[in-house]
């Protein structure tokens, strides 16, 4: 490696210095002179008509500056929060897209729906006054679960959405699937629920609105993964503020996991209110509000069938899924159970025919949108559970049945029957690496040892593939995306050779300030400490799409490479001029610009200085400056893939599931910073284990009250709930269509882990006759399953 | 009813008039402007707000500022040496990539230091159980555990800051 801080080095993170000393700047850390505080009055009912709001007492309370309602927003012509992706139903009709106002106007549609906002001198005063806002509600019956909401008798969430059906979409070749099923030697069937989760980034959402009367400029500081998207959506669709008068800043952001992609009503409210009250307005969610109002994730109810021939080869897959959208369409909600889900149903297998139907449903619950993995964990969980069922039913070893059906590396690029073209992947290799990591051959002995202790033991696999860096823009547009999906970068050399990189990607834990700087250090031989990465401020960076879908390095990093290409081309021109050589004779070696075949050479620092002190440039041929911008639009998705294996031990007396061994083998293409990549995997795994064993968002099915509304009720995985992990990756299959060969690593852990854990749990319980249980496998549920089956066995 | 609260924060005497209901974490963040200590929940579960009160780790959202009257408080801002040298636990978190978004980190580091004070040579299981009151959503705890084990060892090494604690 030429540069100790270049590509492939586990450079210690540069951002840690401020985070470890309490000097990070998160949105709630920012306070402005004369600032006010906003507290929202939220619906205590899942569904209610708002007959009137009496803010009289609240307005008179100490410190109150204003009490504002949906009617005030309507009077100011504030629009609806837009949806960024349009799906068309089977019959060609567009999805139902009812309005979603930042503050509800006539009806509240979920517990937590905002109905008014109190703005006061202090947070406490605003909270006190919010208690005094009298809302006259007429409680209405609620449609809470997706399956019941589709039943014709269910209450209507929106008057003009018949049967609460947002869209009825499909993908694949139904006739081919039917024909294959008719020929099948065996059909494996499974009903399964992918339960609703609450993302729970540790930093609650927050927003600070400011308005400068002198310049007419609005500034929103917010907990966002993509400030430009917020600026576009809020400016153009909600508040009618042109981009040059609207700055959106996402400073340090304390985790996102998808939940901070979306444009939320509170952002529009504080921006609008700041102008109205003539003072900065800050809102910070309490955790209870986060539980109620952050977009939730998953919530699928599915039926799946896999047709196999007599040798265990997969012939066809048929899937029907009901996806809960919640009360309104969040920014990217419709894309999650469709193009990020059904397109992944091929998994790693060469299943020739696939057909999926997805019904999206409105309910009186919080909106549902992307949560780490976003559609892909749901697809992986469905396929991998079904494959495990098929293995059990056919008696074929679960590793072998997978191996038999893998798309072989030699078949790449591979066109799946569900729209994607995988570029690379060696799935058998992942499995080969993983098996010895868990001593698969020794499992039977370990199971016997567990049995001697009175414990049940199981081992489960998940071989996953995901599509990351949603792309290219023209394809995404054809599929319903209302935005482009490129990324921007600007690489600016300064006169004395230091570099500022402006990126449209956003870091909220991913360590871009380190990884992106490594790219520059590697390319130009610049000391890493001389490279600054700037992100998260629309007034500084070119229009960028932000960070989601594991896209930052594959798309944002590629944009940086493209900008560096331009810098290099310009630097060559300058070098040729300085060295009095032909441009074609300039070669770049280890970051130095050399005249081929000579010892004449310049460093990029020498060139940068000349670029800004161009005393003798031929100005008609060579502009001063060394500052280049690029927009990179990917040619295809990237396809990270891997094999996760989980081994669990279950205490039948208590139902407690212990993850005793977990191995993850991943193919992320080329790895820039192994330390950071492994950290991403660890975190993802625990979110996946969290879904499998602990987390569950529960609404009361009648009242629509959120039962799991705090950390006392919603079980977050803690340090003593999870093991340490064995994590490996290989770099043999670099992505073929981006300049770095990278695939993305942010969501992989979450995508593979839930399925691997549940396969292990069901395997452990299989001796009792258990063939499936839904997540989460909490002690109580496991214990009940054990009791039920033990009694059933005893009765036989 | 306002009341006057006085305490020592990171070695500096401070005094403010606050509402009686003011929590210690609100006092630190909103009244002193020391925003290194974070608020991640409203049920005293997440541990992002952990500080040391007279040398013991305390969730600063569970006590009133008035209850800390006269106490000596150490926050994440007060851990590193005056010359910027990180406390061994801070250094270990950096070395072992024990943080990602950084939001739970201040509480995690403060809890870890108190844990090691009680148990200077913890096992992995001791660390996992000892950090049960701190939630991290990013790291999966793997590298936090590694960092705390390494930090514990470094603290025994008698580095400058550890000796001063």
Descriptive key words:
heterodimer, A: alpha+beta, seven-stranded mixed sheet, 20 helices, 29% helix, B: Ubiquitin-like (UB roll), DNA polymerase, domain 1, 6 helices
Report on this structure.
The complex is a heterodimer of chains A (796) and B (165). Helices cover 29% and strands 23% of the residues of chain A. In chain A, a hairpin with a 5-residue loop joins strand 13 (297-308) and strand 14 (314-326). Chain A is globular and about 95 Å long. Chain B is α+β, with helices and mostly antiparallel strands and 165 residues long. In chain B, helix 2 runs antiparallel to helix 5 and helix 3 packs across helix 5. A 5-stranded mixed β-sheet of chain B has the order 2-1-5-3-4, with helices on both faces. Mean pLDDT of chain B is 94; it is low at 160-165. The interface between A and B is large, with 58 and 57 residues.
Q: What's the structural domain tally of chain A?
A: 3
CATH superfamily of the largest domain in chain B: Beta-grasp domain
Described by its quaternary structure, the protein is: heterodimer
Which whole number gives the mean pLDDT of chain B? 94
- β-strand amount of chain B: 15-25%
- List the uncertain runs of chain A: none
Largest sheet properties of chain B? 5 strands, mixed
Shape of chain B: globular
Q: Provide the spatial order of strands within the biggest beta sheet of chain B.
A: 2-1-5-3-4
**Residue share in helix of chain B:** 25-40%
- Radius of gyration of CA atoms of chain A, rounded to a whole number: 28 Å
Beta-strand percent range of chain A: 15-25%
Number of separate structural domains of chain B: 2
Distance between the termini of chain A: 66 Å
CATH class of the largest domain in chain A: Alpha Beta
Number of E strands of chain B: 5
CATH architecture label of the largest domain in chain B? Roll
Architecture per CATH nomenclature, i.e. the level-2 architecture of the largest domain in chain A: 2-Layer Sandwich
Order of helices and strands of chain B: EEHEEEHHHHH
Number of helices of chain B: 6
